[in-house]
Each structure stands twice: as C-alpha cells, then as structure tokens.
Amino acid sequence: MAQRYKPSLLLFFLHAGIIDLMKLLSVIILMWFGVLSFAAEPYRFIPVDNIPQPCAGHASVVDDQNRVIVLGGYSYFLEVFPVASNLIRIFDPKENKWSCSRVRIKIPRMYAAAVALSNNRILIVGGI
Asked: Could you list the mean pLDDT of each consecutive 10-residue stretch along the chain, which spans 128 residues?
C-alpha cells in the first residue's frame, strides 16, 4: 500500500508560502472525500480505449463502481465554434471500454464542477 502524506505536511507548505490558503482548503476537502490522495510512489500511465466523442472543458468523477464518469464539456461545430455538450460518457477500467449513457444532462454545460455523492448520484455545479 502506498504511503500517504499527512495534512500536517500540507500545513507546512502553507506556512512556508508554497501554497496559499484556498489551495490548501481545496486539497483537504478533496482528501476528506477520498477524491485525492498523495502517494509516495510514482503513478503508472496505461493506454486506454478512445473516448467516443472528443471533448474539453468537461467535469469528471469516479462513481461507486470505480467507473470514470465524464460530464458535459464542449466540442467544436465546423471546427470553429465551441458547443456545450449534454453527454454523459462512462469509462469502465475493468473492461477498458467507453460508453455513452442514455441519460443526458438537462442543460448542456462546459467548465462545470462535479462531485460524486452516495448512491451513484452526481452533483453538477456551475459551468456555462
């Protein structure tokens, strides 16, 4: 199991001026919800299946089944105009496959934030 850095180390970074208070609070909140953890060992990158429709400016979360859920974002119309998306794309790392959900976001969004809640619910906030 990877060694985890303690929040006291983050407080040292704050005191030393390496990070500011808002970044520190964001990191602690993400660590509290288990979204972010600092591992002492380096990460390994592995190739995965291509996403069904390219997008940028999306939000993403990991659900209760360890699938990556990619929400909204934008793609280009006529390669010039960004168009917000209401698609929900799902990546299953066990099968190395992408799929699109039949459910759509009610209002297309780009640059939104998302948080995975209990019971496979997702809260989407902000965006344009």
From this structure: 48 51 62 52 68 82 89 81 88 88 90 88 88
Model pTM? Answer: 0.63
DSSP class per residue in 3-64 = PBPPHHHHHHHHHTTSS-HHHHHHHHHHHHTTS---BSSPP-----PPPSS--BS-EEEE-T
Tokens of 37: 């953890």
Q: Return d(Cα 122, Cα 5) in angstroms, integer.
A: 28
Biggest alpha carbon distance in the chain? 50
* Cα separation, 127 vs 86, whole angstroms: 12
Quick check: helix, strand or coil at residue 121?
coil
